[in-house]
Amino acid sequence: MTTRDHPHAVAQPPDEADVDRASAEPEPIEPDAAVRALMSTPVAWIEPDLSLIELATWLEAEAVGAVAVMRGSRLEGVVSERDIVRALSRGGDPNEVWVGDVMAEEPVYVDPDESIITVAERMLAEGVRHLPVVSEGQVVGVISVRDALRVLADAWRRARASKGT
To answer: Is 34 among the domain residues?
Structure first.
């Protein structure tokens, strides 16, 4: 099942800058670069009235670990694989528990101009692995801890190589 197949899941189309960036040879991204250079787009989102079984099926099909929960254009929360596990471990029926019941409400989010290193530090402090990127009240991207770690590890390798070690 993809976002095109599910009535409650929507992916926004990429803008021209995203298409141009995807087709160009990638340059190394520095840890102090703005998140906009790294965030994933288009943004997939779901509505809060999906059951956990529908959510799990959707996450598996899309190969993602978390997704923004939207009602219209408003960010209502974020839901992740961990939220599913937590609900099931407490005896929840995956057909009877809804995304809106388990999502992280009032989610932490970041601005597209914040640095990758700052966002990585916030993820550590908040104990989250995915953050929506919000600009002017709209979700414009998502950044994962894996994205940030890739940049940090690449910068570390380049620094070591420049020292000859």
So the answer is: yes
**SS in 3 state form for 66-85?**
EEEEEECCEEEEEEEHHHHH
Give tens-digit pLDDT for 107-125: 899 999 999 999 999 999 9
In a domain, 2, yes or no: no
Residue from 156, 152, 153, 160 nearest 115 by CA: 152
Cα separation values, 98 from 102, 114, 142, 153, Å: 7, 32, 22, 37
Task: Give the burial class of 125: count Cβ atoms within 10 A of its Cβ; 0-12 exposed, 13-18 middle, 19 or more buried.
Answer: exposed
- Domain enclosing residue 14, as ranges: 9-163
| Spatial separation of the C-alpha atoms in residues 49 and 69, rounded to whole Å | 10
Is-above-0.90 flag for pTM? no
CATH number at residue 118: 3.10.580.10
In a domain, 93, yes or no: yes
